[in-house]
Amino acid sequence: MFSRDRWSEIIEALTANWFRTVLTAFGVLWGIFILVILLAAGKGLENGVKQGFSGIATNTMFMWTQVASKPYKGMPKGRRFSYDMDDVTAIKDQVPGLRFVSPRNQLGGFGGANNVVRGLNTGAFNVYGDYPEIIQQEPMDITTGRFINYSDINDKRKVAVIGEGVKTTLYDSGEDPLGTYIKINGVNFMVIGTYKKKSQGGDIEEGQKQIFVPFTAFSQAFNRGDKVGWMAITARDGYSITELKENIIDIVKTRHTIHPEDDRAIGNFDLYQEFSKVNGLFIALKAVAYFVGVLVLLSGIIGISNIMLIVVKERTNEIGVRRALGATPWSIRGQILMESVFLTIISGMAGIILATAVIWLVNIQLSGMDTSEMMFLNPSVNLGVVMIALSILIISGLLAGLIPAQQAIRVKPVDALRTE
């Protein structure tokens, strides 16, 4: 029940020495400020890093062939082998939980060594033979035209989707590439679309200098037959590609007579595993933020507890008189606890407001900048964090006042009235 007299007494007790009260409250204010700022900074870093994964099917692995490092069933060590379309079919049929198994072929290597010609302009670009699903596994925005489809695959159409970097190199400013032809290793392909890669935290400029053509047309034009250079494999929601990976690799080893323990023969990159490590890192950062923030807050709480002990000492006569007039121990204890919680919550809320103002100013500054390639984006804290902070404040206030409250109820009325 609200008591005007009690709250007047609390405010009078805390303002009797306002400078001491302000210094004590600053410890709690600073602790909660540090906690909120650390959590917001961690969230901003997490948002920036995850922005680099936006649009990517993170539950994906990439798999390619290497050299067999162990002899097996009469096959020698050092043997090279290649995937084929039957491998793709076997993986799809034998591994449940897969969403996409996309075979890929490539010209040019990661540095781009093949020649692409249009008129008098030439360039060296990576050229990929792909299936339509690849656009759901890699982040890509179609800026004009369209991406390859299954009609292109079935009809083995020699069509191409080029990056904005390819367009800049081979075409004049303002020139529309759609419907024009480019020559890839001497074979003509008609441009049906242009794309722009989304940020992946890597070399974005290099990502715009790639060309995508139908897998079947690539194989026919460059005499690849049914060979597959590498695969992009994505699991369905509810499945982990990391858990399915071993089964996938075992199928390939069996089909190509690779020793079951030859882990070097099959190259792979598990994007889901790497993404999980990133998530684990941010969980650890959040734990560190809570740990540091709570420690700083604890120092402020200790300061409040010390001040409340001093206040109890200063009010020994008052407490003795109240006890002599019939005040119960719980009444005395409740008064001290309320003063402690009140001071803690007021100073803590001031810290939350100050931290919110700082985060708001940072977001205003970031809103005027291009954050597409930044590793820091939209620092913020959600309502749950604020509720946690308030809970910590209330519990801390109770703990801060507990020892002084117990000290107060131990005061004997006779001894208190004797003190000068």
UniProtKB/TrEMBL annotation:
One of its GO terms (molecular function) is transmembrane transporter activity. Its main location: membrane. This is ABC transporter permease. Belongs to the ABC-4 integral membrane protein family. Residues 291-402 form the ABC3 transporter permease C-terminal domain. It holds the Pfam family MacB_PCD. It is a multi-pass membrane protein. InterPro entries: ABC3_permease_C, MacB_PCD, Macrolide_Exporter_MacB. GO terms for cellular component: plasma membrane. Signal peptide: none annotated. It comes from the Bacteria. Residues 21-249 form the MacB-like periplasmic core domain. It is found in: Cell membrane. The chain crosses the membrane at residues 21-41, 287-312, 341-362, 382-403. Keywords: Cell membrane, Membrane, Transmembrane, Transmembrane helix.
